[in-house]
Amino acid sequence: MSAKRAACEKSDDSIADDTTMFDLAPVSLWLEDFSGVRAVFDGWRARGIRNLAVFLKEDTARVGEAMGAIRLLKVNRRTLELFEARDLDEISQKAAAIFGQDGLESHIAQLVALWHGDSVYQGQCINRALSGRRIDVDLKLQILPGHEEDWSRVLLAIDDITEREAARRQATEAKDFAFGLFDHSPVSLWLEDFSDLKAVLDRWREEGVADLAAFLQEDTARVGEAMGAIRLLKVNRRTLELFQARDMDDIRGNVAAIFGHASLEVHIDQLVALWQGETSFAGRSINQTLSGRRIDVDLKLQILPGHENDWNRVLLALEDVSEREAARRQAAASEEFALGLFDHSPVSLWVEDFSGIRRLLDEIRAIGVEDLRVFTDVHPEFVQRCAGEIRVLDVNRHTLKMFGAADKRTLLDRIDQVFQADMLPHFREQLIDLWNGKLFQQREVVNYSLDGNELNVHMQFSVLPGHEDDWTLVQVALIDITARKKAEAYLEYLGQHDALTKLFNRTFYAEELNRLDRNGRQPVTILVADLNGLKALNDEFGHTAGDALLRRAGEVMAEAAARTYKACRIGGDEFVILMPLADAREGEAFAERLHKLVSLNNQFYSGQELSLSVGLATREPGERMEETVKRADDLMYRAKRAHYAKTDRVSRTLTNIAS
C-alpha cells in the first residue's frame, strides 16, 4: 500500500511535469503544499479559535504566519514571465513581495474558506511583479483530489486582468454629448476638467521633478494637491444612485469621502500615467458611498479626442464590481446618440431594430398563443424566423476588433458567421423573456469571430427608453469572457482526470458507478486491471521509471476504450474500464483487444515489459455495481497471483540452472 500511496502522490506532482497541461498553460499556475497551513489551523483550533476572520483581523501578523506556512513546489513558465522572475527559487524567495499587503483581504478570505472546509476558492486580489509593477489578478485555488485531508497538493491559478484590452472612450467636446445617452448609461460617468491638474504637473516638471512616483510617495499630501485640482462638470444618474447622493452638488462636496485614502495607490498610478503622456488609464480602486459603504470599482479614464493638449474634457467611467450589478443603458432617441461616446466605448456595443420580432410575437399572441415555450417546442422554426427579423443598425469600433472585421460593412455582410445555429437555444430564451415583458436581460452566449474562433460572451440586452412599445431601438453589450471560460474548463478537467495517465480519475469513476447503478436495466461489463511489477520497478529504478510505465498503461487503456468506454485510474497501479451496454461476449472481445494492444506496446518500447493482471465481470440481473466490481476484482487478484506464481517458478528455474 505504501508504494501505491507514493504513486498517487507522484501523480499529483506530475501536473507540474506535464508540458502540455502545466508548463505551457496560458495562465500562471502554482503547485503548492498547504500542509503547513493545516497544521497552523489545527493549532488555532486547539486554542479555541472559532471565528477565524475576526481572529486574523485582530492581528494581521497571523495572516503572515498562516500564509508563510505554504511551501511552493513548482510554477510554470507563465508565472516566471508574469512576475518577471528568473526561476522558481527567485519566486520562492520573493513571494512576500509578490503577494504583499495589497492582498491582505484576499488572504483572509482564502484562509476563511479553507478553515470552513472548502476545497475550492476563487477571488480577485492585487499582486506585484518583482519590479514592483502592480498586477490585478483573478485567483483560483483547488485542493487536488486525494489531498483533502492533508492539503499537501494545492493548485493555484492566477489570471492577469490588468491589461484587459478595452478601447478608451474618446468623446468630442461637451456640445456633442447627447444628454440622454450620458444620463442613462448603466455605468457611473463623470465629465471632468483636468486643465488645472495639467498646470500642477507642468509646474512640478519645471521645478526639476523627474520621478513622479517617488516624488508623490515622499509626501502623499502632494497627491491631494494634484487630485484637488480636478474640476467636476457633470455626473449621470447612475453616479447619484451608486454613491447615494441627492444631486451633483452633493457629489462635489464629498469627493474626498468618496475616493478617500483607500485609493491612494491608484491615484498615484493614474497621475504617473498622465505624467508619462498617456491619454487613457485603467485600474481597480476602492471607493465609498456617502453612507460609508465600501465599493470596489473598475476605473477607466480617457482624455476625450481634441483635448489632448489642454485636458479640459476627461471622461471617467466607474463600474461597480463589488456586487456585479450593472444597470443597462437606457438611451434616448437615435438622434440623441453621441457618435464619439458610442464609438469609443470599451465594450462591444450593437444598436439593433427588434420591431420585426415584436410584430411576429404580437401576431401569434393575437391568435391565442399564451405560452411561447410550449409554442416553440411545437414550432422550433419560429425561433429561426425571429432571428431573421433582427436588423443591425450600428456597431462600435470595439465590436470590429473583437470579431476581427475590417469595417462595419464586412461584419454585417458576414453576420451569419458571427451568430451561428448553436446560438438559437440562447436566442429562444431571449424571446421568451421578451414575451414575458422582460426588456432588460443578461446571459452568457456563444458567438464566433470572422476567422472562425469561438467567443464566449456575456450579453446584456436592453430596449432603449422611449421604444418600449415598438422595440425599434435596442442596445446589446457584449463582454468577451472566453479566457475565463477556458480557465473554468481547465479546472473542471483537472477535477475529473488523472494528471499522469490522462485517464478519468477515481472521483469520476465513483460518480459513473453510481449513475450505472441507478440505470440497473442495462447490461454493464467491468474490466479491472492491475499493473504488474510496478513496486519492484519503483524500488529498483525509481518513480520516474514507474511513472513512465504508468503512462504506457494509460496509453493502452485509452486506445482500447476509445470513445466507447470509460478508462479510469482509481489507484496507484489499479485501473478500471467501465463498459455500459456491453455484455459478456463484448467484454471478452474487449479484453482480447486490450491484450493485443499490450503486446503491440511492448514491441514498440524497449526495457521494462508492460504486463497487466485482468479481471472481467458482467452485471447480472438485480446485481449492484459494487458486487460486479467485486467479482471482477477477485478475478483480477486470481490472475495476479497466477502471474507472480509463474514468475517465481521461472525465477527458481533460472536459479537452479545457474547453480
TrEMBL record:
For this UniProt record, the keywords arranged alphabetically read as follows: Nucleotidyltransferase, Transferase
Q: What EC number(s) does its UniProt record assign? A: 2.7.7.65
Tell me the InterPro entries matching this sequence: Diguanylate_Cyclase (IPR050469), GGDEF_dom (IPR000160), Nucleotide_cyclase (IPR029787), PAS (IPR000014), PAS-like_dom_sf (IPR035965), Rev_trsase/Diguanyl_cyclase (IPR043128)
**Domain named GGDEF: residues:** 522-649
Q: Name one Pfam family in it.
A: GGDEF
Which segments of the protein form a coiled coil according to its record?
none
- Catalytic activity field: 2 GTP = 3',3'-c-di-GMP + 2 diphosphate
Keyword Membrane in the entry? The reply is: no
GO MF annotation terms: diguanylate cyclase activity
PANTHER family on file: DIGUANYLATE CYCLASE DGCM-RELATED, REGULATORY COMPONENTS OF SENSORY TRANSDUCTION SYSTEM
Q: List, alphabetically, the NCBIfam families matched.
A: GGDEF (TIGR00254)
Q: This chain belongs to which protein, by name? A: diguanylate cyclase
Write down the species: Hartmannibacter diazotrophicus
Lineage runs:
Bacteria, Pseudomonadati, Pseudomonadota, Alphaproteobacteria, Hyphomicrobiales
The gene coding this protein:
ydaM_3
